[in-house]
Write a structure and sequence with these properties.
Number of domains: 1
Number of helices: 7
Shape: globular
Order of helices and strands: EEEEEEHEEEEHEEHHHHH
Strand content: 15-25%
Largest sheet: 7 strands, antiparallel
Helix content: 10-25%
Bound molecules: zinc ion
């Protein structure tokens, strides 16, 4: 895969692992760099993780190939080319046996953030992390209902997110309760409260407080690039059937085995 400079992970530059989505941010010297986008997840059994939604509406849907093992990780995400305005089709649909996910997209700030568990900064909490919310098709309606009941739309709405501990529990949490006590976060609140996190992330606080530019982060790769990925994937098939083969079975988030859960460790913390 192509070498590209990224900023994030433990800080500094790193070779990306697998195929991911990126947002352009500024490094400390003011140079544009691609930063790996982290999708939101709650831990199994976790209670009341606090998040705030940045979108006005949750109405952007994307067809993604995700959770297929390549380049040593399950955390791959590649936009599907099927249905685009050409007749070539999607090479990944062919090799992944059409396994893809329709996902409703949102942007949230994970207010609780991440707490370092080792090293010099052990115990330090980094709040207000920018995360991509990927809502699986099967719960899109639930989110629609939540949206209808929100006064004044999604933007600034705060939630407490819990996730059951079951093997097949939903990655984004299966219980979203509006945090009435915290109330809605106002524009000025965001600018005040996110300033430090925005600087660490590499965006102005104004940009940090806005949703991802979905057209840009989900810009499909070319047919040729997808063909290359598909060929790379094909080589892994049959090498070690139990481990390497295939994307995860059945439905996206709920597939039990194969360990996406902790494969994201490289994506932490910011
Ligand atoms: Zn496809």
């Amino acid at each position: 895969m192509p070498e590209r400079k990224t900023f994030g992970g433990g800080g500094g530059y790193e070779r990306p692992k697998g195929y991911r989505l990126y947002e352009t941010v500024m490094d400390k010297e003011g140079n544009p760099v691609d930063k790996k986008i982290v999708d939101f997840k709650a831990d199994k059994g976790e209670k009341n993780r606090r998040v705030v939604i940045l979108d006005e509406n949750l109405d952007y849907a994307v067809r993604l190939h995700k959770q297929f093992k390549l380049d040593g990780t399950w955390a791959n995400m590649v936009v599907c080319r099927s249905g685009l305005n050409d007749t070539k089709g999607c090479p990944l649909c062919d090799v992944l046996e059409r396994r893809y996910s329709w996902l409703l997209c949102g942007t949230l700030i994970d207010r609780d953030g991440w707490t370092s568990t080792e090293g010099n900064n052990k115990g330090t909490n980094y709040p207000n992390l920018r995360r991509l919310l990927l809502i699986p098709d099967q719960v899109a309606e639930t989110f629609e209902t939540i949206g209808e009941e929100l006064e004044g739309g999604w933007r600034g709405a705060q939630f407490k997110v819990s996730r059951s501990s079951g093997e097949k529990s939903l990655r984004i949490g299966d219980n979203w309760r509006e945090d009435f006590r915290a109330g809605k976060l106002k524009e000025q609140d965001m600018l005040d409260e996110f300033e430090e996190s925005a600087e660490r992330y590499g965006l102005s606080v104004e940009r940090f407080s806005q949703a991802f530019d979905y057209d840009s982060i989900f810009k499909p790769k070319s047919y040729e690039e997808l063909l290359e990925i598909a060929n790379e994937y094909k080589k892994t098939i049959g090498r070690s059937p139990s481990e390497e083969r295939g994307s995860r079975p059945k439905s996206l988030e709920t597939a039990g085995k194969g360990g996406d859960e902790d494969e994201d460790a490289d994506a932490l913390p910011f």
